[in-house]
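Quick one, tokens below:
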């Protein structure tokens, strides 16, 4: 997907799998990787999937940014 969109999706694929090895999620990942790798999408499904992945990724990033900003502001108030 990165080749098509030009975006890096670090929470998908081998990069994420290597980071998650040794954790509980890696077993789930291993059990389903062949299914995911062999799943075929038509053009419409592919475009919808890219859109949804981008939206979920944006939500995830905003959530962690909000948590970070809260932590920084809370720490600054303690100083």
């Amino acid at each position: 997907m990165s080749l098509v969109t030009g975006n890096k999706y670090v929470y998908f694929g081998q990069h994420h799998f290597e980071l998650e090895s040794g954790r509980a999620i890696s077993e789930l990942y291993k059990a389903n990787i062949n299914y995911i790798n062999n799943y075929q999408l038509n053009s419409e499904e592919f475009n919808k999937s890219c859109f949804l992945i981008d939206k979920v990724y944006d939500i995830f990033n905003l959530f962690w940014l909000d948590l970070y900003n809260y932590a920084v502001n809370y720490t600054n108030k303690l100083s």
